[in-house]
Amino acid sequence: MKKQSVGLGLLGLGVVGGQVARVLTEKAETLSEQVGCPLVLRKIKCLPQDLNRPLTKELPAGIFTTDNEEFFKAPDIDIIVELIGGENPAYDYQKRAITTNRHVVTANKEVIAKHGTELLKLAQQHDVGLCYEGSVGGGIPLIAPFKHDLVANDITGVYAIINGTTNYILTRMAKEGIGFATALQNAQQLGYAEANPRNDIEGIDATYKLAILATLAFQTEVKPEDIYCEGISRIGSRDFRYAREFGFAIKLLAIARQSDNAIEVRVHPVLLPEETFLAKVDGVYNAVEVEGDLVGKVLFFGEGAGARPTSSAVIADIVYSAQKIARGISGKTRLRLDSGRSIKPMSAVETEYYLRITAADRPGVLAQIARTFGDHLISISSAIQRETENGGQSAEIVIMTHPAKEAAMQQALAELARLPVVKEVSNFIRVENV
Amino acid sequence: MKKQSVGLGLLGLGVVGGQVARVLTEKAETLSEQVGCPLVLRKIKCLPQDLNRPLTKELPAGIFTTDNEEFFKAPDIDIIVELIGGENPAYDYQKRAITTNRHVVTANKEVIAKHGTELLKLAQQHDVGLCYEGSVGGGIPLIAPFKHDLVANDITGVYAIINGTTNYILTRMAKEGIGFATALQNAQQLGYAEANPRNDIEGIDATYKLAILATLAFQTEVKPEDIYCEGISRIGSRDFRYAREFGFAIKLLAIARQSDNAIEVRVHPVLLPEETFLAKVDGVYNAVEVEGDLVGKVLFFGEGAGARPTSSAVIADIVYSAQKIARGISGKTRLRLDSGRSIKPMSAVETEYYLRITAADRPGVLAQIARTFGDHLISISSAIQRETENGGQSAEIVIMTHPAKEAAMQQALAELARLPVVKEVSNFIRVENV
């Protein structure tokens, strides 16, 4: 059944919600034209304190409510736009929207990462759509390519710089030689890192986004807890110096790749060859490289967060859903989960490694360390030994390995730590030659 | 009306056509699953010599024809995929497909650039779709972002490295210090440039692609002949040396940007700041940067040509069209041409300039040259003067200007050429600070 207008309900009037409301108002005419009928914002559920914001003066007073029941029972709402963020109560709100046969548009990475498959199945049963382009990478098209543009491909890998906060911190460390703590403090002062930065710097935020991308790319349900995750807090300024010497940059990378008949899904710092595109992505920008059997490598780059870029994605989803509603077409989202691929355990993953070891500065030390690697069949590709600054008491040994299994490396690391000549395994970082 | 299967007819069995036929065969099952019903390749129109290719052994013999009438009259063909390339007879074939109510999928940049608006209007009248993702940038999604992902944005600029041949030549010149002729010869030997390379090196190929992108981005019909066009053949290895000294790379850029209430559309070599992303795009790769009021800058990067990447885009369009046909949904392509924007004449365009001038090596020369710029209200931002290698008889003067109008610069150039002390204006290149 074709419709004369499409009604929207907006849940949440925070920075993104406010921006979406503003654009829907300011661009009402061109957006309606694209939909093919009026696109009408009918109801906004917000917090009591939101009612004092300047934006509320620009919209009809009756549009606002702070009451859930009033919001969900308002008539003529075809699409509910959930922009409150966080897992709860957003998850329940999305379910309620779907089970009352409303299409859902959201930018909520946590809900989609944790409950996306369940919600998509529910949406299929209710013949409505669930769109979430804004949940990953701000306004960069990252969901649509997997659902439309790259459908002819078997995706072989996804390599993503997908958390602006950590990329900003690593960029400052790389360019200015400052330490992690100082770079984090700077990021907080500039509003690029939150007061409690754990979700970003420990890689958790990146696991949400990677779960969403990997599920789409490999038609395999990937949950955040399936993803191996390491943050950036143990990276030191010395690591950047050595990395540069070997021709590498250091980035927090989210990786999903085909490997045998399984997939690897992992978020951790990596050494990337300096000449690669991802190595050149600096500051708060995001970039996602996708490898397909036909397309080769394609890369998508842009601002990965912020109210305006995210509103670009949310409104694109609204227009897409509204076009279907206006034409009386089923908005049902196709859910492809059929590959039967398993997730490879981290212990079976193979990469090259960079290691920085503090050891006693005396003859035979490098030989002992090298023997430990040899015992675990790990082959060293290059090694450098330097005196540290504490007056020749200890040496810093940096080792690059050929590809080795993570399990073997972990055993070697444990054994190295027990060697009397080794004072500390100061860091180890995986190397990706993407 | 829903359909039990969707039939395809393929026009052309060249490198791209052959690859598309192969993928449709090899991936028939997964593609049909995505369409929702069998996707069947029913007819291929090819040249007599194509019948000897190995591919023809892998497909049912009855599928091939060398006869137009047999092809166009074959039953149960819902989508005609035109992959013969060039303007004629492809243009007529597309018209015939549309007027016999078949959807069209094509990768033909020349037909779409020259006749796209007319064909889209015709397709609307016949309630069929016309898809051309493969016409620009190989498998990189470049059409879809404008039609879907970025619809909430007012696009302010499109900056594109969109011709792999010229980017390969410029990259070799930049990295190896070789001249244009040698680099072109190398590109020809490697198959990156054609025996007659004019379309690529003179920028004509880029104008086709820019016409397509600009029409979509600005909802303004832009034809190739509306686009100011300069090729790369006059760039010398000396220009790369000076550009590097000033911190710039040299690229052939296709530009469409909002400027006052008009749009600028131009293809020419530019100096780009070295630290920008586009400056780092090397070799045969393509990259398109899009600026929107909400999304900020987004960049799309990948292999811009080749049978496999192009087949990725063509098949995505086939699946998209077939999904609509299978569900009985109108495939009509929406045509938005409504902005009322005009195209700014090149004489009114304002950029910064780099100039390389060969002059007599004696006192007062730079002053005379500077005065000529001053007479035309063009302000110089920096200048260097070097002796040339011919024993001090002449000097090379390189000038960078502040923004100036093209008309003023052309007048200044003409006047410079007439100055007795000026032996030659060896080159001038516009500077873009994107």
Which structural category fits the helices and strands of chain A?
A: alpha/beta
How many independent structural domains of chain A? 3
**Helical coverage of chain A, percent range:** 25-40%
Give the strand tally of chain A. Answer: 18
* Biggest β-sheet description of chain A: 12 strands, mixed
Mean pLDDT of chain A: 94
Low-confidence stretches of chain A: none
Taken as a percent bin, the fraction of beta residues of chain A is 25-35%
CATH superfamily of the largest domain in chain A: NAD(P)-binding Rossmann-like Domain
Q: What is the rounded distance between the termini of chain A?
A: 49 Å
Commentary on this structure:
- Two copies of one chain form a homodimer.
- Chain A is of the alpha/beta class.
- Chain A is 36% helix and 26% strand.
- Chain A has helices at 15-26, 28-35, 68-73, 90-99, 109-125, 143-149, 164-176, 180-189, 198-201, 204-218, 237-246, 307-327, 365-375, 406-418, and strands at 6-11, 39-45, 64-65, 79-82, 103-106, 130-131, 155-161, 228-229, 248-259, 262-273, 285-292, 296-303, 342-343, 350-360, 380-387, 394-401, 404-405, 422-431.
- In chain A, strand 4, helix 4 (90-99) and strand 5 form a beta-alpha-beta unit.
- In chain A, helix 4 (90-99) packs parallel to helix 5 (109-125) and helix 5 packs parallel to helix 10.
- At the A-B interface, helix 6, strand 12 and helix 12 of A face helix 6, strand 12 and helix 12 of B.
- Strand 12 of chain A pairs antiparallel with strand 12 of chain B, so a sheet runs across the interface.
